[in-house]
Amino acid sequence: MSRSLSIYVPHQYVSNLVALLHPLTIAQPILYTFGLSIWSAAPELAIQELGYPEGAIETKVVNLVEGANFVPDFLKINPKGTLPTLTADGKAYTSTAEVTAYLVEHAPKKVARGTAFIDKIHEDRYDPNAPLLLTRSEEELKSSASGFPFTFVQNRQNSLEKHAQTPEGAAYKELYESKIAVNGGILAIYKGEVSEDVKHGFFKQSTAHWDTIVGFVLNDLPATLPENGFLGGATPGEDDFHLAAWLARVAFLCGGTADKDGYKALEKETKQPVPTKVAAYWVAWSERPGWQKVYSGGLH
């Protein structure tokens, strides 16, 4: 008859072995986000809709209003200084598409994967961030120069200039110089430090950008959206997380709310009723628990 062999290992050795192996365990994913960040809402919606348990994804806030995304310690994680950013499995995912794709791929709940629509919605011509700072008239310029847009741009400039002068920031010199120039240009417009030609050129650029966004709402979206439900089918898919975040920001800029009638604020810019498919899409999202949680404090 064979015997099993038992080996006694002292408890302290077991403890030491566990301590030794602990650093090799896979770290919890960390999502770097901010409440007012339009594109951070895409992975936030994904986390809510994809069945991730509470606390499965750690969240760290990077205050964009204070320019915290330009601190060298954050740039070590994401050299572009953008949100959202995700660290997982020893890697950093530094674009909205990469972050959301990771969450979809590893989610407890499987949904329709993304398509080329994601690349389209992220094209510069449809940028939903720009209108927050753009102005099309003297009236809009006065409002921006005395309100949140000015504070936001000034704080960014302060942060960029501060960290560009530090030894830690030397590795990001090119980023700082580029951002200081672009951001500083907008700040100069707000401060009235540019010529009339430059100012009116800014008005023209702002008007063209808004026209492109309105065209997307009135023409592109109705041609893309289904009669009911979502791009991903009966429930939101990967494409939908991006579109929902985009649409919420545009509605926010128009004074919209997160409820089922919030889309009507878009008519401030469309100057006509919102297309039926777009309205239905908004209503479908407004009923989702994920939408209600992410936008519980209002659109952004």
Automatic annotation (TrEMBL):
Residues 31-109 form the GST N-terminal domain. SUPFAM superfamilies: Thioredoxin-like. It comes from Grifola frondosa (Maitake). This is GST N-terminal domain-containing protein. It comes from the Eukaryota.
